[in-house]
């Protein structure tokens, strides 16, 4: 009887341990859902705050260089604030002008849009055999009234971003001033929470690298697209170039968002040859710069795998809206810094997220061992 009780004791202990771990997982998931729901409810605050943080991180080296050259800290801080304000002012003005241009551009192509809708209806119904209800829903998506409503909504949003812009400008000013003390604060915290400081420092470095390189390559792509659209005579070339620049910050999906309106406008203005030229050029430029050249400078240092990067765009855009899509990579880097990098016991998760340096070394060693194990070909006899 005692033997059976002793044998049951370890089983009961293991069962209670498994139940405890399962309970912790459920509680953690429930807490995560509550936190994410709360973030979505205050997305209008969280998005600008994080954007201000990223912009402050990006311009902080400028402040350091000015101070290193003997510029007083106050003047260096004011210089970074002015630089940030100039960038924000240029972006807001560009969005406003583009929205106005779009509302003036669409009515000029009312006959072409109507003809395109009729041709699309015939193709879907007669060639593909799609039902009337589905055809009607698809054709209504390119209806002029729907496009105009969208354009006017965009214009209204552009005119009503004043309060959000003021909030962002105030945040940038306060963060730029407080950034003077960040190195000292981190040095103090380093003594007590070294992993946390290392994780946040690495996050700042990676985010700055991503934003700067994406801005540079996005500007190159936008300039090339602008030149093509001007040569082909596509209306609203500046608008579509600006769209391609902004969408460059959205991995994988941004290319398609920038391509569709430019291609449709090319089809309306120049016909099928212009449409094919725009699609082909956009595809070549995207494949060459954003898919081959840019990842060599960005992806290796960011250490986020393609699956996680794609899912991060969907996740953060659903949580924070369009700003979440633009900031998807820095947001994911911040989440990784808080949840993984700052906890040494969670380091085993890094390979699943995208840090495959150790895996590459192991794979190279395995290939070398397999190559060495292959029997050498017999030497021919003389």
TrEMBL record:
One of its GO terms (biological process) is transmembrane transport. This is Predicted PurR-regulated permease PerM. It comes from Arthrobacter alpinus. Belongs to the autoinducer-2 exporter (AI-2E) (TC 2.A.86) family. Its main location: membrane. Coiled coil: none annotated. It is found in: Membrane. GO terms for cellular component: membrane. PANTHER family: AI-2 TRANSPORT PROTEIN TQSA, TRANSMEMBRANE PROTEIN.
């Amino acid at each position: 009887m005692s033997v059976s009780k002793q044998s049951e004791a370890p089983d009961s202990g293991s069962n209670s341990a498994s139940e405890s771990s399962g309970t912790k997982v459920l509680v953690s998931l429930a807490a995560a859902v509550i936190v994410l729901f709360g973030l979505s409810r205050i997305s209008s605050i969280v998005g600008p705050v994080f954007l201000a943080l990223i912009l402050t991180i990006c311009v902080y080296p400028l402040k350091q260089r000015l101070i290193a050259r003997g510029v007083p800290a106050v003047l260096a801080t004011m210089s970074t604030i002015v630089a940030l304000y100039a960038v924000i002012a240029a972006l807001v003005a560009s969005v406003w002008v583009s929205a106005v241009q779009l509302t003036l551009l669409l009515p000029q192509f009312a006959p072409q849009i109507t003809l395109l809708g009729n041709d699309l209806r015939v193709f879907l119904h007669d060639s593909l055999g799609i039902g009337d209800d589905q055809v009607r829903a698809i054709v209504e998506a390119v209806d002029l009234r729907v496009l105009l409503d969208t354009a006017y909504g965009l214009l209204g949003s552009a005119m009503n971003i004043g309060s959000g812009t003021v909030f962002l400008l105030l945040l940038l000013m306060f963060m730029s001033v407080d950034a003077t003390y960040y190195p000292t604060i981190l040095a103090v915290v380093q003594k007590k929470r070294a992993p946390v400081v290392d994780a946040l420092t690495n996050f700042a470095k990676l985010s700055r690298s991503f934003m700067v390189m994406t801005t540079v390559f996005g500007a190159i792509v936008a300039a090339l697209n602008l030149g093509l659209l001007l040569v082909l005579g596509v209306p609203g070339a500046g608008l579509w170039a600006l769209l391609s620049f902004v969408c460059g910050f959205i991995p994988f999906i941004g290319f398609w968002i920038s391509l569709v309106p430019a291609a449709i406008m090319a089809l309306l203005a120049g016909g099928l040859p212009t449409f094919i030229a725009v699609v082909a050029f956009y595809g070549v430029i995207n494949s060459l710069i954003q898919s081959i050249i840019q990842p060599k400078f960005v992806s290796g240092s960011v250490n986020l795998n393609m699956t996680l990067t794609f899912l991060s765009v969907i996740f953060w855009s659903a949580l924070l809206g369009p700003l979440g899509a633009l900031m998807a990579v820095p947001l994911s880097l911040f989440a990784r810094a808080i949840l993984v990098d700052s906890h040494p016991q969670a380091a085993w998760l890094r390979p699943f997220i995208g840090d495959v340096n150790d895996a590459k070394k192991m794979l190279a060693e395995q290939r070398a061992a397999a190559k060495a194990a292959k029997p050498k070909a017999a030497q021919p006899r003389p």
